Amino acid sequence: MNALNKISHSDDPAMQVSIHEMQAKDKVRWDRFVEICPEATFFHRAGWKNVIEQAFNHQTRFLYAESNGEIQGVLPLAEINSFLFGHSLSSLPFCVYGGIAANSDIVRKELEWAAKELALQKKVDYLEYRNIRPVHPDWPRKDLHVTFRKAIDPDVEKNLLAIPRKQRAMVRKGLKYELGAVVDEDVERFFYAYSRSVHRLGTPVFAKKYFQLLKEIFAEDCELLTITKDGKTISSVMSFYFRDEVLPYYGGGTDDARKLAANDFMYWELMRRSCERGYKTFDFGRSKRDSGSYSFKKNWGFEAQPLHYEYQFIKSSQVPSHNPSNPKYKIFIQAWQKLPLSMANLIGPYIVKNLG
């Protein structure tokens, strides 16, 4: 599929818009638009198409709106069709932000129209937009997730002093243990720490291939910071860099991480390094309300900002609830925690690929 909508619905002849599907030849100008569009995020980048297709084998449709030969808006979409978790078209699964990034309301409406046509054609249960800001307050929505974002002061010491006293004490505790911090070029030590952490939480693990693809495709904009003690891996975090922001996205620690305050030290070390490199925003990422990670981030002095996940129902009539806080998954989580780690790492990727 190339042109989806040759005739614009706009009455303004100066703003005739056509909708197309991104091809390999379009990736450079797609990313050029994402880099300058204020509404765009790291999760709008063209590389996610390859990541989702190669890591999870899901179909993607990355749509863009064009006018006078220039991209005016983008909408990355991926389809998940699961017997257990339903059939959806989403922007964008495995990403905390998504939805339409556009230069005007006219362009947004054209992309919405094309997405709904595609959703109807595929007969999905629902179409999901993972917006940072509300776009359609009257649409069905999920009020479960928040994000935590905060400005990084240019002065390293001011950032440390801005951390509330109790949490600052935990950072200093980590500093006292003289932990090492190393930027890795491969995912091995990261996956070691991450897989142990999610297993303790009773959460299915992503395949190592997924993280390898993220590192390969996003290259220097995807960084692995590993914390060690006497050469032993204690914790690790995978972070994304976009414009002037740093986004710690996946992380985890071994059983020793808590007693060594390694995670506290790790996030401070990431903030410190980002400050010294001139980054201006620390995006601590998405958390479920009243979860452990929610409390952890609030302890750092970050304020929760609601995320606006909006839905258009196609065949479904209710907002999906595929998350660990859903009571019906409690028994599954408890059973998962008892699985040997090797078995959890083997089975987990087949489950989590359909959760999005």
Automatic annotation (TrEMBL):
It comes from Nitrosomonas aestuarii. It holds the Pfam family Acetyltransf_6. Gene3D superfamilies: 3.40.630.30. PANTHER family: LIPID II:GLYCINE GLYCYLTRANSFERASE (PTHR36174:SF1). This is FemAB-related protein, PEP-CTERM system-associated. InterPro entries: Acyl_CoA_acyltransferase, BioF2-like_GNAT_dom, PEP-CTERM_FemAB-rel, PG_Glycine_Bridge_Synth. Residues 165-297 form the BioF2-like acetyltransferase domain. It comes from the Bacteria.
